[in-house]
Amino acid sequence: MKVKKRVVILAVLLGLITMSLLYVYIEGKSEVEEVKVDLSNVVVAVTSIPAHVTVTPEMVTTKSIPTEAVHPEAVRNVDDIIGYTTSMAIYNDEQVLKNKVITETESASLSYRIPENMRAITIPMNEISGVGGYIVKGDKVDILVTYEIEVEPTNPEAEEEADSLTITYTQFQNIEILEKGPNVSVTTEGAAPSEVATSLTFLVSPSQAEVLTFAQYTGSINMTLRNPVDENVVELTEFGDTNFNTWRGR
Questions:
Q1: pLDDT at 223 over 80
Q2: Domains, the chain, ranges and CATH?
Q3: How confident is the model at residue 243, as a pLDDT?
Q4: Is the torsion defined by CA of 126, 130, 132, 133 positive or negative?
Q5: pTM of the predicted model, to two decimals?
Q6: Which residues of 122-145 are buried (b: 16+ CB within 10 A; e: fewer)?
Q7: What is the C-alpha to C-alpha distance for residues 185 and 70, in angstroms, rounded to an integer?
Q8: Residue, of 65 and 193, whose pLDDT is higher
């Protein structure tokens, strides 16, 4: 009887051990194994951003997303796009892509290289008016305009005909060249042919564009080339006329 009782006790103990081990095994299988996800920061739109607007800090933020979901062209740093212009619409919570914001202005179309409140205007030029063709994109020039002005006769009662006066003004100073037009070959007697641009595109304010257009149709335009580091505006008083001083260098 004692042997039989011991067998029963041993069987119970073994059963309890088995149940404990089975419980531990089941609990381990039921736990969800934690998976590490690799995250990367990208710039996303806080709200929908239209095309052709300047990106401001309020429009974008940085967000962590799974690395495998990051677009190859995604912008990673907010500072890389603030102040630049969108070329396409960007939708809410969308990753901001490099090809949707114009940051490389030199490779962008001309319109994206014009600062706000400024304009681009093109005028024709030749070898003489364009400083022999030595002007290049990015140079600064002064623009001189020569006008023919009618002068009233000194004695109107003598029925004298109105005379004309030729006068030249330095209309603008320190004007930037945005682009040069296509070149043409110019041949000077006794010299080898040279390439001279047919036009220049200037960066001007709206009022300067107005005056420059007027000068183009009513006067004769010449340019002088400036040293790249010389940005001084010289006060020229040697020549002048009250009819024009009010809008010189607008």
A1: yes
A2: 39-107 (3.90.1210.10), 114-245 (no CATH)
A3: 46
A4: negative
A5: 0.60
A6: bbebebebbbebebeeebbbbbbb
A7: 52
A8: 65
Q: What is the mean pLDDT of residues 51-67?
A: 91
* pLDDT over threshold 50, residue 126: yes
Report pLDDT for 159: 61
> Do 244 and 147 touch, CB atoms closer than 8 A?
yes
CA 3 distance to own-chain centroid: 97
CA distance 168 to 148: 9
User: Closest by alpha carbon to 88, among 121, 137, 50?
Assistant: 50
Nearest to 151 by CA among 167, 164, 161: 164
Which amino acid belongs to residue 239? F
The kind and range of the H/E element at 18 are: helix 2-30
Token pair 């009887």: residue: 1
